[in-house]
Amino acid sequence: MWSAFYMTGVLASLVASVYYSIHARRRGIHPLESRMLLGKMNVSLGILVSLFGINQFTFDSLDTIRIVVGLIMLIVGAMNLFLGTRNYFRYRTAWQAELKKGV
After folding, report:
1. Residues 50 and 70: beta-carbon distance below 8 Å
2. Which of 46, 57, 45, 49 is nearest to 18 (CA)?
3. Is the predicted pLDDT of residue 46 greater than 90, yes or no?
4. Residues 18, 33, 88, CA angle at the centre, nearest 5°?
5. Residue 66 has pLDDT above 80, yes or no
6. Which of 1, 10, 23, 41 has the largest CB neighbor count within 10 A?
7. What's the pTM?
8. Cβ(90)–Cβ(35) under 8 Å?
9. DSSP string for 38-90
10. CA-CA distance, 16 to 31, in Å (whole number)?
11. Distance from C-alpha of 63 to C-alpha of 97, rounded to nearest angstrom
12. Residue whose C-alpha is closest to residue 95's, from 42, 54, 45, 35
């Protein structure tokens, strides 16, 4: 069960990261919209790194190095998830305000 959830999560977050990265860097896009998409990319990368960290704890032999690497990946993934969410909502609000101002 864990294997199916893990592989689905890894593939979905990897595809989402690549998708948002490509679309954020295309020409003719508004800078605030681009930063909003980069925030979504950071959220999906945070999920990916967190899943890698959680996967370290599923192995039978847990040694000190595996635990430390797993904890570091969890911390980095959680920070990326938090900061990406914060940036997404910040730039989405600014972009919507600019759209209302322009209309």
Report:
1. no
2. 45
3. yes
4. 75
5. yes
6. 41
7. 0.89
8. no
9. HHHHHHHHHHHHHHHHHHHTTSS---HHHHHHHHHHHHHHHHHHHHHHHHHHH
10. 20
11. 51
12. 35
Type of residue at 37: L
Place of tokens 């039978």: 60
The burial of 60, by beta-carbon neighbours within 10 Å (0-12 exposed, 13-18 middle, 19 or more buried), is given as exposed
Q: What residue type is 72 in one-letter code?
A: I
Contacts of 23 (CB under 8 A, 6+ apart): 29, 37
Quick one: pLDDT at residue 16? 96
In 3D, which of 13, 8, 30 has the Cα closest to residue 84? 13
Q: Residue 103, SS3? A: coil
For the record, the structure tokens of 45 come out as 């990368």
